[in-house]
């Protein structure tokens, strides 16, 4: 596809998602309490979006991922939390 075709096909959806992210961050900023590891991972992932090199999707995914390679004996919880709690 051409750049124009990609923009025509995906721009409105991407625009919607970006507005949703902005609304989420506004809600987080208005809320009381300390930030946690998920917010830190989210902000790290957002920094990857401003880059101009290919591979942004991979870098965003890696911002949320556990970088360790050694298996653990038992999962610490019942489900995924969406981000790696570094040091926990």
Question: Care to describe what's here?
Answer:
This protein has 88 residues and is mainly α. The protein has 2 domains: 1-33; 34-64, no CATH class. The chain starts with a helix and ends in a 24-residue tail after the last helix. The longest helix is centred in the first third of the chain and has 28 residues, at 3-30. The protein has helices at residues 3-30, 37-49, 56-64. The protein has 3 helices and no strands. Helices cover 57% and strands 0% of the residues. The model has no long low-confidence stretch (mean pLDDT 90).
Radius of gyration: 16 Å
Strand composition percent: under 5%
How helix-rich are the residues, as a percent range? 55-70%
| Outline type | extended
Number of domains: 2
Ends: how far apart?
44 Å
N-to-C SSE string, H for helix and E for strand? HHH
């Amino acid at each position: 596809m051409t750049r124009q075709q990609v923009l025509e096909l995906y721009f409105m959806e991407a625009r919607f998602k970006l507005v949703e992210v902005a609304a989420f961050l506004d809600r987080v900023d208005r809320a009381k309490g300390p930030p946690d590891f998920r917010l830190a991972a989210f902000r790290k992932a957002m920094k990857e979006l401003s880059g101009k090199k290919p591979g942004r999707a991979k870098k965003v995914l890696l911002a949320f991922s556990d970088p360790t390679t050694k298996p653990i004996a038992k999962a610490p919880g019942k489900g995924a939390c969406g981000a790696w709690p570094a040091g926990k």
